[in-house]
Amino acid sequence: MRFSNYRALLSTSAVAAVLLGAMPAAAQDQQQSGQPQQAPEASSEDIVVTGIRSSLQGALNAKRNAAQVLDAISAEDIGKFPDKNVGEALQRVTGVQLTRSDGEGSGITIRGADPSLNRVEINGVTALSTTVGGGRDVDFRDLPSEFVNRLEVVKSATADMTEGGVGGTVRVITRRPFDNGGKPYLAGSAQAIYADIGDHMDPRLALIGSDTFANGTIGVLVSGTFENRNVESHQARTTGWVQLDSDSNTAGMQAYDLNNDGVGDFFPDIPRYVINRLETRRYALNGILEWRPSDDFKAYVESNWTKSIQSVTSQYLQTGTSGGIVDTENTIIGPDNTVEYLVMTNNTSKAQTSQLGVSYRNILGDIKRTTYNVALGADWTTGNLTLTPKISLSKAKAYNNEINATAAVTGMSSLIVDYSNGQNAPNIILPNDPTTTAGINQLTVLRRPRYDDQTEKMAKLDAEYKTDGGLFTSFKIGGQYRDLTVKSRFYTRTTTLNGFSDPAVQSQIDSIVSGNAALGTSPFFHTGNLGFTGDYSGWLNMTQGVADAVGIPDPFAEGGCPANADGTCQVYTDTWKVGERNLAGYGQASFAFDVGAVPVSGVIGARVVNTKVNTSGYLSTGGVISPVSYDSNSTEFLPSINMKAELIPNKLMARATATEVMARPLPQQLAPRFTIDVVGLSGSRGNPDLQPFRARQYDAGLEYYINRTSFASVTYFRKEISSFIQNTTEPYTDASGVTYTITVPTNGTQKVTINGVEAGAQIAFDFIDVPVLKQMGVVANYTYSKDSGYEGKDYFTGDSLPFQGLSRHAYNISAYYEDDVVSLRGAYNWRSKYLITAQGRGNNPEFGEAYGQLDASLNVTLMPGISMFLEGVNLLDATRKENANSVERRTIIETVGRRVYGGIRFKL
């Protein structure tokens, strides 16, 4: 059993108590000793607010009343949330930074912690991952914001919280039948979504209704949404920047040094253009049945279901440099020893398929994601004792039916890639016209379906006893059992037509491509800023018709892959199962006492959790596939203390916390698996010996509540992460002599410390008696984070690297105007650069560059209960970029264009 140094936490709490008590005497005569402070009663001058101000009041109350360090976002009205996507809403929270997929908010980091290190709950039930390949991160794109009543980001832990959030815990709290006193209602919205990048107009519908029966003792709430979205993003990519060997006949790397400065030059590896197209249909249902026969008892059953079906028609134009010879006379080296203008000629000494070439590749097929959870629970209070039992079942399924159709020009005479433009983007110049079939001599179709399934069964019981007085105001104990199973199965089968060695096959290729290929449906990179006006606004699109004409191979057919030992097309080395059984128990006590005239309250406790892990899969040794299984057992002790003090009643509050948290490795990291990408010459494998992330964290802050809508806060936080997991790389050479870069997860030996400051404020200008201005307000926050102790180094320079995923600076600022008819809001979100991986393709570290985005919304009330709205996302048409440790070595330049939502809301 691993026990942390609890004395450090107790020492911290003692110091915190002294600091909280040692406040100016001027504040003391304003206190009421002995009892927690209550919110003031509404006076005749109080104004009842709705809309944006109502949302801000709900967020303020959640923050002020919480025992932990917590930030919240509340719905403005039934079915009306500030953002279209739960993830995009969370980016407005201090310390939260958003991860986007094709322009949509899909995941978040909290205080630098990767999305997989944050726990997400829906009404207290685990939200499972639908990540292809098996993860723990939650895709927020499929969770409708219309269902949400409030989002909470909890950054410090209490013992009664389920473990798993090193960064924090996200609580998604949906609406319930008795939220508005049990009054019946029906609300909904109908809207159209326009995306300029693909010039699509798409529908989105939402409906939510609630009523009570049996003299107001039974409440029912049902809600549903439907959305059809054409999501599109365009990327100019350079898969990696590598040093090339100028003399293969001499042992070791003799790197090209064309500018003769003694440092090897970096050449682009696999420059390519990408048009990602996904037609996405999303369905969601939410239902709650709640019984409240008395104030002392309630029971409920609730369920959530989401389904997403993505039809994929993504299009690639990609070329490689490994099959060419550098034209040293015409190639130009720019800043940072990086190729600015590359000229290559074909290397005819290589095999035909390994020579210089270009590919027109389409990723087809579909991706289906389904999540489901159901929970049965109750709250029963008898005297001073409250019992809260709950059981739940959660399921998540992802099916990626990937089909690739690729036409290749092999043996291409030359290649030019020009990076001398404003964005350092690859301007690919080919000797052939990519809008025609010229030079195509190979056609490949493959199908590689993957099935990922996650299931969690949970049972818990909490018991809380409230005392009648004394130092401790309540005692709480509880136990929880969770059984998680994650399974992944992978299949692949390929059909290849080589025309360069068979004229009859070449004729077949010409017929298939000319009869079925087409150009893309939208011009490449016509939104955003590519840095140049390219010659290629489109290229050959290997449509579903091309794949069908070749014949999509069946990976499930018996004997379909005779090269494998049993003839099956199942990839056993990427087929696996991970099981986790967690048994946790905790005890905590709430307390309240006075330090002088300052009331201090808090929660102290500890959680003990035992985890048994079984991983099973297959390993290949000498070409022989054998089943393997591994078992592990660990016990963690997680103490915590959260304290707050009312320095000025209902105005100034101080907080101090000290907690220990943990997060388990990704299932795919634990699995005994091994995969390679023959196109990217990369791969990954699992590591069943991984230990969990562990962290000790501290907070100290002040919160000043100006009125019911406005507040300002500042918090210092410190996170000490030990036994963290990092990706390292190792070479792997297959039987044919091809070398791959394999990513392997390992536990870091060092301790990483993150120190930071979060500052935030929301100010309503209703205290300024000036027309228009008094209807306005601002919400702003800023986060500063700095790490130390991370031992990741730049492979080439030896320079220290920052902790992965951590931006040094991030801020959000929004301004709003709201009266009885019109509400208007604009919001800008920005984060500074961050490390993606310490060692990417070509051994360079890879960074996400600074990124900012402006969104705005307008709502007009037409009559009571009916309003129209217009909302814009990414109004400045921002371009997202990544690089290999230099802006001269850009790896991704992405545009997603602007999105506009317009429609009608109603509430009856």
Can you tag this structure with a few keywords?
mainly beta; 28-stranded antiparallel sheet; 7% helix
Terminal CA distance reads 57 Å
- Helical fraction equals under 10%
> Please, how many helices?
7
Which parts are unreliable, with pLDDT below 50 for 5 consecutive residues or more? Answer: 1-48
Largest sheet: 28 strands, antiparallel
Walkthrough of the structure:
The protein is mainly beta. It has a 28-stranded antiparallel β-sheet that branches. A five-stranded mixed β-sheet has the order 1-6-7-4-5. A hairpin with a 6-residue loop joins strand 44 (879-883) and strand 45 (890-895). Helix 5 (503-516) runs antiparallel to helix 6. The chain is globular. The model is unreliable at 1-48 (pLDDT under 50).
Offer a quick outline of the entry:
The chain is mainly β and about 900 residues long. It has 7 helices and 46 strands. It is about 5% helix and about 55% strand.
